[in-house]
Design goal:
Blueprint lengths: L1 H22 L16 H18 L15 H4 L5 E5 L2 E8 L3 E7 L15 E7 L2 E7 L3
Antiparallel strand pairs: 1-2, 2-3, 3-5, 4-5
Length: about 140
Amino acid sequence: MIFRFRSLIVPVCLFGCLFVVFGCKKRPGSEDVGIIPDNLATAALQIHAQYIKAVNSGEQERSDEISKKYWTDEIKRLNPVKVYVHGTNIVVVQKETANKQKGLYLILMISSYAPRNGEDGFTFTDLGNSVYKFERIIEN
């Protein structure tokens, strides 16, 4: 009985190490933004469509900031401080101080704008699937 137990120790320990190394890995760049669903680009397009429809019908006044009532569940799960439009794209602010914002920048499939570091105070890190992690310096 002892012999069987000892022969299992090494494989069990190796399996445990492999699980820790590969199973608990975070997605690159996701440390500050929480879980990043694969369908955020679709969620951003839904928000944009609902918001534009409300503006065009007169139900909502045009504003850069998008009201919480238009946020999808995928966006709500990111715990945003606010969501706003930048050009045609959607900005999900997750942390904000007086002069700095951090969060996710979502490129809509209808957008022709490709984010560039330095424009409007943004610095981007591409996470894939039309999702960028961003930091933005707000100049007053």
